[in-house]
Each structure stands twice: as structure tokens, then as C-alpha cells.
Design goal:
This protein is of the alpha+beta class and about 425 residues long. The chain has 2 domains: about 260 residues, no CATH class; about 50 residues, no CATH class. It has 12 helices and 4 strands; from the N terminus they run ααααβααααββααβαα. A 4-stranded mixed sheet has the order 1-2-3-4, sandwiched between helices.
């Protein structure tokens, strides 16, 4: 086949993919409801359709991976994984509309619009149930620890939860960091930060004739002009972990997020994506086309990635400016590590895993031939496998602990 024919063939395939996507959207708008079985809940469909890798944990010994997984939490996760009702932890099971099994009712008061029953999909456990709050934090910390341990094994300098004052080389005081980089922002804040950024560019330019003292006052006035935020929002941004290769100077900033994709707030977008993927697969099979949506990840995970990137873009912006002023040898790269409770990873999470694998490969190559006969390829293969399984185990252990804790009586701390 000549080059011109190959090019024409590729153009035809691209056109057909576009047509297929349009047919999928048209069909979805008319028949989406018919594609979801009325014998399953939306959460059942979402969990069953997830690109889950959680099953990896059943083929590996857990102790070497360094993640604690108690017996009760393990059983709770297994029941969730198999779609079985949770074990009796609260008691008083009753038959309720919408459930085909007796359900326990949460004994803690929280949220008027939260379903109070402990379900097989762990939606209640993930609905900010106060009893499960500690387990949520443990799950988050488990994932951070797995990434940090892998980074250390790869020879990287690792800092967990570094304070923003140090992260930005002390350019802002600790008090100003909470003001300049709050955890939540408003439109007024964004406008104020833009003015602060422009002021920073001005004093760093050759056109600025201010003295050092005048520059400090000028910047402080811009900081003081930022809107006063609620105390809960003004605690300041802080990334979860920072990695640096001491040999290359490459720096990665990471923030971890675990999403429960079958939660009621995500159901609509998740079901639309599932229907689109199923239709895409059918069209591809029928017309011998490439499956246009085969690799599309969960829309919830993509949204969470974008939110994380936007949230921490202000820190990266300051770091870029510091690099332009020769205060940094390299520009840090921010990578959100987003994973679902079902074990599906967002695209940037895959990128981070592979980056860690590459760093480990570089370390092995630098160390040279080993006396035990293990090759670099063997070591890298084992490192990648262990990292992927450990991430799944961290999420599974945390989710199992959440299911066990959810629904218990709760009056709040200090009461």
C-alpha cells in the first residue's frame, strides 16, 4: 500500500470515528434509559463498569507491601468487591424501598439529603459519615505513603506534606502563605491574586525603580488587598508530597485524591459515560471501526484532576517565576494522583506511576551490574508491579476500614 493510499485510509478512519461519535450521541439522547438494567441500581452499574484493578490485591502477599489491612476491613472490602451487603456492624436491619436486602441505619446525624442506610456499594460510608472520617484520612495517608516509599526506593528525595513557606523558598511568610494560597477561592480572590501576580512581575522587571524596602511594602499592600476569607478556607494550600531527583534536579509536586465514583452526585455523568462507551463498542464491532471511546476514563476522575490542577496552579505559577529569576534550577511539575475506590486510575496517576518507574530504572542503571545476578529489566518489572499492587491495596484497606466504621454513633470530638 502506497503512502497516498495509507494517508487516505487514515483520513477515512478519522472521519468514520467522528460519524460514530455523533451517532452515539444521537442514540444516547433517545435510548440511554433502555441500556441500564432495571434490576440493578445505578451504583451497581457504575462499579461493574469501572476499569478496576482492585482484583490485583488477591494475587499478592500483603505484608511486604507495607499497608495495614485488618481482618474486619479485609472482609468488608471483599463484600463490597463482590457486591454483597455489608456485615452487621450497627444492627437493627430492616427492609427498605430501593434495597433488595435488609439494611442497617446510620446512628450518626449528618446531611439532610444523605441516604442513612449502609449499602453494599459503600455510598453511605463515602458520604462524609462522621464515623468514617478517620478511616478516610487513613486511606488518603496510605496512598501517600505508598508513593513516598516507592520514590525513596527509586533514590528520590521525598518530603511528605511540606509547608508552603518552604516549598516556595521562603518567598512568602507562613502567615502570608495562608492568605495568598487559601484552600478555597472566590472570584474576588482570583482577581486579587491576578493583581498580586502582576505586581510581582513589575517589581522583577527592569522598569521597576523601587528600592528593596519599597518593593516589600508594595508587595505587602497587594497581599493585604486580598479578600478576607472564612477561617476554614484560609488554612492554606499544602501539597501531599514532593519528589526530587538529586542527580537531574527534576521536581514533582503531588496531591492525592480518592473519589467514590458511584456516589449520588456523580451518578448522572458516570452513567452517561458508560452508555457512550457501550454504544461506541457496539458501533465499532458493527462497522469494523476503531473504538473511539475505548480508553476514556471516568468523567469523575477527569473532573477531579482538572480541579486539582487549577487549585495548585498558583503554587506552580510562583515556582515558574522563581525559575525565571534563577532562584530554582528547574520548574516543578504538578501531578494530581487521582484514583477511585474501585481502583481506577486517572491519566495523570498513570503518568506519575510510570515516572517513578523511570526514576527507579535510572537508579538501577547508575548502580550497574549486581552481584546477585538480577538484571535491570527484572528489577524494574518487579518495582512497577509492586507499586501498582500497593496503590490498590492502600485504597482497598482504607475503603474497608470506612465501611466498618460507617454508621456508628457520633457526637463529635470533645463531647
Amino acid at each position: 500500500m502506497g503512502p497516498e493510499l495509507i494517508k487516505f485510509s487514515e483520513q477515512c478512519r478519522a472521519s468514520l470515528k467522528t460519524v460514530a461519535k455523533q451517532k452515539i450521541e444521537d442514540f444516547q439522547a433517545q435510548n440511554a434509559v433502555q441500556l441500564i438494567s432495571d434490576t440493578l441500581t445505578p451504583a451497581d452499574v457504575i462499579n461493574a463498569s469501572s476499569r478496576s484493578f482492585a482484583g490485583r490485591i488477591f494475587s499478592e502477599p500483603m505484608k511486604p507491601l507495607g499497608v495495614g489491612f485488618g481482618n474486619d476491613a479485609y472482609i468488608a472490602f471483599c463484600r463490597h468487591f463482590l457486591g454483597l451487603p455489608p456485615s452487621v456492624t450497627v444492627g437493627g436491619e430492616t427492609i427498605q424501598d430501593g434495597f433488595d436486602y435488609p439494611v442497617q441505619k446510620c446512628l450518626a446525624a449528618h446531611g439532610r439529603h444523605v441516604c442513612p442506610y449502609l449499602d453494599a456499594n459503600a455510598n453511605h460510608a463515602s458520604s462524609k459519615c462522621p464515623s468514617a472520617g478517620k478511616a478516610v484520612m487513613v486511606k488518603h495517608r496510605n496512598v501517600i505513603d505508598v508513593l513516598a516509599n516507592a520514590a525513596r526506593e527509586a533514590g528520590l528525595e521525598t518530603k511528605k506534606e511540606p509547608d508552603t513557606h518552604s516549598l516556595l523558598l521562603g518567598e512568602f511568610s507562613k502567615t502570608d502563605c495562608r492568605r495568598v494560597f487559601p484552600s478555597k477561592v472566590s472570584s474576588a480572590y482570583k482577581a486579587g491574586f491576578e493583581a498580586l501576580s502582576q505586581a510581582s512581575d513589575f517589581i522583577a522587571s527592569a522598569a521597576c525603580g523601587l528600592s528593596s524596602e519599597e518593593k516589600s511594602v508594595y508587595m505587602q499592600n497587594k497581599i493585604d488587598a486580598l479578600p478576607i476569607l472564612d477561617a476554614r478556607d484560609a488554612k492554606g494550600l499544602r501539597i501531599d508530597v514532593s519528589f526530587e531527583n538529586p542527580n537531574t534536579g527534576e521536581v514533582i509536586w503531588v496531591d492525592v485524591s480518592v473519589a467514590h465514583t458511584s456516589s449520588p452526585s456523580y451518578v448522572t455523568s458516570e452513567l452517561k459515560a458508560i452508555v457512550a462507551r457501550k454504544l461506541s463498542s457496539r458501533v465499532a464491532e458493527l462497522h469494523l471501526l476503531p473504538d473511539a471511546l475505548q480508553g476514556d476514563p471516568s468523567p469523575t476522575l477527569i473532573r477531579r484532576e482538572l480541579d486539582k490542577a487549577d487549585k495548585y496552579s498558583r503554587l506552580v505559577l510562583v515556582a515558574k517565576k522563581q525559575h525565571s529569576e534563577h532562584k530554582r534550577t528547574s520548574i516543578p511539575k504538578f501531578l494530581p494522583f487521582v484514583v477511585s475506590d474501585c481502583g481506577e486510575l486517572a491519566p495523570r496517576a498513570y503518568d506519575l506511576q510510570e515516572w517513578l518507574v523511570d526514576q527507579f530504572r535510572l537508579k538501577c542503571a547508575k548502580e550497574g551490574r549486581r552481584s546477585d545476578g538480577c538484571t535491570t529489566a527484572d528489577l524494574v518489572r518487579e518495582f512497577r508491579h509492586k507499586l501498582k499492587v500497593a496503590v490498590q491495596l492502600a485504597v482497598a484497606a482504607g475503603l474497608g476500614a470506612m465501611i466498618c466504621a460507617a454508621g456508628q454513633p457520633w457526637q463529635g470530638l470533645g463531647q
